[in-house]
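[[Encoded backbone]]
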Amino acid sequence: MRHLKTKELLGSTALTRKEGETDDPSDIVTKALADLTKSVDDKFKDLEEKAETGKITDRLDKLEAKSNREKGDPPEGEPTEERKAFANYLRLGNNLSAEEQKALTVSSD
């Protein structure tokens, strides 16, 4: 491959302009951007028309309905004595005070 010198390149290319073309580079760039924006928008519109969003929309609606359900009744106020005793039993095992053991007793035969 032979390398060309700068002087050889200057005379070898000539720019031809079409009728109605302006010399302002900003106009050329603006027009190119407008064409690109239009083609991208057209492609997105085509994709939106082709896409099946029915299944996804149904699934999202179901998930949204599920997440909006009430979570149940929150515990009101302080826990009862029985609940406290049971929590201590789970934590400590049989090392409970006599009062807590009485609270855990359901029935005595």
In short: The two ends are 107 Å apart (CA to CA).
